[in-house]
Design brief:
Length: about 90
């Protein structure tokens, strides 16, 4: 079981949260200059890192905050949790 330390509610069981996928950088500025293949890859091919990964989690059964969680995919150790910056 993973414990996620919500910045607003404190340590909570992972069952209170919903995993929402890998954290992605904002959409490329010059999409019209991308090849169709590159744009499709951007939309549909998630990174699958081994080791440290940035993920988006929603505190669904708690305060409702959207969080950026840095987690080791090998050990499931939570390295850092912060509020997700919407920009």
């Amino acid at each position: 079981m993973i414990t996620i330390n919500c910045p607003f509610c404190g340590p909570r069981d992972e069952r209170e949260f919903e995993y929402c996928g890998p954290h992605r950088q904002k959409r490329p500025d010059k999409i019209n200059e991308m090849t169709t293949s590159a744009f499709i890859d951007y939309l549909t091919v998630p990174e699958n890192p081994e080791g440290e990964a940035k993920e988006v989690w929603w505190h669904r059964r708690g305060c409702g905050a959207w969080l950026l969680v840095v987690r080791n995919t090998r050990t499931h150790e939570i390295i850092k949790v912060s509020e997700l910056d919407a920009t």
